[in-house]
Amino acid sequence: MKNTKVLIILAFIAIYFIWGSTYLFNKIAVTELSPLFLGSVRFLTAGSIIMIIAKSLKTSLLITKKQFLNTIISGFLFLVYGNGVFVWALKYVDSGFAALLASTQPLFVLFLMRIMDRKPIQKKSLIGVSLGILGMYLLVSQQEITTSNESLLGIFMIFTCVFSWSYGSVFVSKADLPKNFFVTTGYQMLSAGIILAIASLSFNEVWLSPLSWSFNVQVCMFLLIFLGGIVAFTSFNYLLKVVSTEKVSTSTYVNPVVAILLGWYVLDEKLTIQSMVASAIILTGVYFINSRKRK
Question: What integer best gives the mean pLDDT of the chain?
């Protein structure tokens, strides 16, 4: 029981802080690489490494047809649509505004569970979601949000991505998946990587050899694969099975806070009093959702 608690804490640290750092890594990498190509390389490499490690640990990679189908479905919801299309949509929507839209995920999760499970939405959860959205608004409202003629398309697509990730979270919490979370992650990433590669070729994206990437992009891709992919996404799959889905979704509140702090420290981005106040409000929202009583 004690070991389980430690694993849960470590897994939350991974999805809160490692995923928060991927904003910075992706921002640097996407300056040279096409978004779908970037995702394809990232997930195919991470998935392959996961499978090699699992095999070396003598973990069985055999799964049922139903489990295989479920890993493809969840991989598509999370990594192909939820991640790949979201990055694509950033071409049309300001990144700060996109972060605000993404912060609605816990609300999507709560309402999906209400519809699918008839699970009551508790007051503390609603207060937490409200505080989280307020905090995100304070963060992104500091800069003027620029729009383009295609901004409505971008906004619509981002909302569908948030819905995809939210539905995927609820789906995984109930689906028949491999008992080993490492194996689940491996199959999800390999299937997503293949789909993203096909999509990248279909959209005629430019494919560049890793040898031609700059050193900074090579380092960022390494961190995206090993930390953002293998460590954090495996932790995410683990948490969806052992804690409530809305608790896992609180990462959408903490990730932007981490991203802003890293941007300030690494890229010398301005850190204002309003940013610090917003961060405090967001973390308070996380507390309310995590402290609600089970019924």
Answer: 84
